[in-house]
Amino acid sequence: MKVLEFDVLESTQEKAFELAKENFNLPTVILAKKQKRGVGRKGDFWWSPEGGLWFSIILPKILPEKLEIFTNLLSFLIAKVIFEETGEKIYIKFPNDLYLNGKKIGGVMLQNKICSKNQVSVAGIGINTNVKDFPENLKDKATSIFLETKKEIDNKKFLEKILKEIEKILSWFQEK
Amino acid sequence: MEFEIELGQEKFKIEITETKEGAKIKVNEKEFLFGEKDERKSYSFSQFFIPQKELFYQEKIVSPIPGEISEIFVKEKEEVKKGQTLLTILAMKTENEILAPKDGVVEKILVKKGEKIQKAQELIIIK
After folding, report:
1. Which of A44, A98, A161, A165 has the most CB atoms lying inside 10 A of its own CB?
2. CATH match of B50-126 with 2.40.50.100
């Protein structure tokens, strides 16, 4: 999968929709070291400082009927990669949220924009991998893999593993 | 024969095929049939387009998926730009944003927030 990397973005979702107008080979990944206005489902703010893994995937066309299964599987795949890398068991609050030790460590969202017969679907994924600190109002609700395990995650390697897993399932979802 | 014409900001894809009865003209997937009983053998574009204008510029936006209207962002008589979000449909726990396919004015909103809708149900008419 092609990965476009940015130091800072307002949000990877926003950039993905902006770039979706260009004719990239899909899927294409938009990765940012830091997001100023990261968003979660329903537009909620997502704290996304340096250290975390923040990316969006501009997807090839997937039938709207299959998008829910795809989102659910994304949560599973990420939980699986975290388990394989750290041995930590992740709790999935369906369909979008990932928890570790009772606190949120990541999330998955899917935005779909339809204009006549054109459709652009972007999956947004945020994982608090090496986030070292959280604002006061989030400290009780959110955590990171680093804070829970004291292990530093190699974000690049982590991303590669996740993308490999996604590639394996993607062909089944693509419109024939 | 296939060709494209541009009128103002609108693009029209025209496809003309001969049939046993006469001619079939397809304009942006809408079909117009001309039978041989009609004595006029040729049609200028002005004859063709002007009577059809009302119909032609109206665009019904239909739902691509069954679901529930979770938000409506526009009002009737409001001007909209191509690509502007008109409404969102919550389907399979995914928000689907329905965008305006062209610049225009919202002629009619046929659904309400919270309404359950079927696939292919008409949602909004833009003129």
Report:
1. A98
2. yes
The alpha carbons of chain A give a radius of gyration, in whole angstroms, of: 15
Question: Cβ A110–B64 below 8 Å, yes or no?
Answer: no
Asked if residue A20 has pLDDT above 60, the reply is yes
Measured CA to CA, the distance from residue A87 to residue A7 in angstroms comes to 30
Q: Note whether B93 contacts A95, CB cutoff 8 Å.
A: yes
- From chain B, the residues in CB contact with A116 under 8 A are 101
Residue of chain B whose alpha carbon sits nearest to that of A96 = B93
pTM over 0.80: no
Judged by CB atoms closer than 8 Å, whether chains meet at A65 and B65 is answered as yes
Cα-based angle A68, A100, A84 (whole degrees, multiple of 5):
80
User: Is A112's CB within 8 Å of B94's CB?
Assistant: yes
A58 touches A27 (CB < 8 A): yes
B93 and A64 within 8 Å at the Cβ level: the answer is no
CB A56 within 8 A of CB A126: no
Mutation test of the interface with chain B: which of A115, A117, A120, A121, choosing the one with the most B Cβ atoms within 10 A? A115
Structure confidence at residue B99 (pLDDT): 93
**Before A95, cis peptide (omega within 30)?**
yes
